[in-house]
Write a structure and sequence with these properties.
This protein is an all-alpha fold. The protein has one domain (7-60). The protein has helices spanning 6-32, 36-60. The radius of gyration is 14 Å and the shape is elongated. The model has no long low-confidence stretch (mean pLDDT 95).
């Protein structure tokens, strides 16, 4: 990994926080939704944000 500036690390930290928040949001929406077509969409969105989170985290390792 290249050396990152403090500003870049702060931006990545903010993005990690955003991705985690979106995972939680879509997981909660999926759990409370009764419409099957929407639960599938919420699950897809949560999965995508979870992947984004994990990729960013792995980049920082």
């Amino acid at each position: 990994m290249a050396d990152l500036t403090t500003k870049e690390l702060d931006a990545l930290s903010d993005q990690l926080h955003y991705e985690r928040m979106m995972v939680n949001k879509y997981d909660a929406a999926r759990r409370t939704c009764r419409d099957q077509s929407l639960t599938g969409i919420y699950d897809q969105y949560a999965t995508q944000h979870r992947q984004n989170y994990n990729e960013l985290l792995n980049y920082l390792k």
